Amino acid sequence: MKNALKILILAALALALNPLNATAQSTNTYILQSPSLAQAQAACQTYGMTMLSTIRPPDTFLVQVSSAVPPGALQQWVKNDPNVKHLEQNNKVSVPETAITTAPYTPPMPVTTVLTDKLWTSVYGNKAWIGYVQQPAFYAINADTAIIQGKNTGGGIIAVIDTGVDAQNPILAPVVMQGYDFTRNVSGYASDLADINQSTASILEQSTASILESQQIIMLNQSTAAILEQSTASILEGANLPSYFGHGTMVAGLIHLVAPGAKIMPLKAFNADGTGDQSNIIRAIYYAVDNGANVINMSFELTQISDALMKAINYAARQGVICVASSGNDSQSALVYPAAFGNVIAVASVDQQSKQSTFSNFGPDIVTVAAPGEALITTYPGNHYAAVWGTSFSSALVSGTADLALATAKVVASWQLQEADIARALGHAIPCGTNGSLGAGCLDVNQTIQFIKGMILPH
Fold it and tell me: Model confidence at 281, in pLDDT bands (50, 70, 90)?
């Protein structure tokens, strides 16, 4: 009788709030945590919710309710119900670079200054533009000493929860493995090429022109510039590429630069416009852990804490998976998630002089370590490159370093490091920032690896 009364009150509330359009209302989605599927179904029946899918069996589900029902009222109804462990809204999430565009932002280094050399060189068995291989950031973090001289290339699996990764990009093709597209619920080589029309995708894919020929810079948004062969750029002019198309491929390129021996698992939880759903991110974290990932790169931010997200991160940590996240591009000392969780390595951005980026979040309780995040050269869908700014890309450099550290530990001690061990190793950094504003300082890949080698690990 009590449950029936609740349903009647909820229905009456919905009709009162929207009496003329009760049959064609929009809906809100929620993440429901329940002790079991049967109890989740009972909760749905009680509160007029519709179950859409299972996020994580046996206790986490995606449900929807009419938007006419205020979220606060619904959460009060379920508060003491034994069938409901937790209920939270399925919030929208964005890549942190979208925050840069909320205010005028002019990169301190013009994009044209990164195009100082058009030579090709060999990197990790592939032909690549020297601007990518020998960019200042690679040397600023002492990656050359750790990788080239130390002959350490990593070797684990790094999951990239992002917009997808172009598995056909010549630089990335040898290391990209099958992943999952959570925006379409399809397994395979998840790429955001599916987010644009086929003719535009074909133009990007078919390019074989050399960067040695005349090229053109196209500003996709205020934090990303695509460096395309001129004829490709001309053909694409007016194609209106989504603002954050290629974000995952750009992140993957920087991971590969630091950890060339690691496999990259693309987990597409974001659309090419940079937006995604919290529920897909949570699914992606569980998928990464259950499918062998050693490191998870999370270049995105939520402004509100999420119990379901924290639960997924805790699961990853218990399984020994290292979680790395961008600290955000809001230019303030503000908590964003998952970076703010205690078992996540949070990464801020610095410029090429190791000064805090004007867009980067900062603070001793917010940042674990900083890494270059301005004027980085990285891979772009097709046989192209991009110049990028943002903490997303700083995070990528640290994710690659985490893989190198894990690989080192296996060699010297056959021991699985935990997040705290990696954080301690990253703490051996180059001093930068003031009063801990950039955590331990600026990333030093070589010092990180040397610390791992010197650790006395239990057997």
Answer: very high
Amino acid (1-letter code) at residue 303: T
SS3 content of the chain, % helix, strand, coil (to 5): 35, 25, 40
- From CA 304, how far away is CA 308, in angstroms rounded? 12
Tell me the Cα Rg of the chain. 23
Taking the chain, what is the end-to-end CA distance rounded to the nearest angstrom? 60
Please tell me the pTM assigned to this model. Answer: 0.91
388: CB partners within 8 A, 6+ apart? 223, 224, 225, 250, 375, 376, 378
Q: Are 266 and 190 in contact (CB under 8 A)?
A: yes
Q: Does residue 17 register a pLDDT over 50?
A: no
Q: Alpha helices, DSSP H only, in 18-142?
A: 37-47, 71-78, 97-100, 130-133, 136-140
Tens of pLDDT, residues 193-237: 999 988 888 888 765 556 556 677 777 877 888 888 777 877 777
Can you tell me whether residue 141 is helix, strand or coil?
coil
Residue with tokens 């700014």: 389
**Contact present, 127 and 120 (Cβ < 8 Å):** yes
Across the beta sheet with 384-388, the strand order is: 215-221, 224-229, 384-388, 376-380
Are 373 and 357 in contact, with CB atoms under 8 Å apart?
A: yes
Distance between CA 281 and CA 292 in Å, rounded?
A: 17
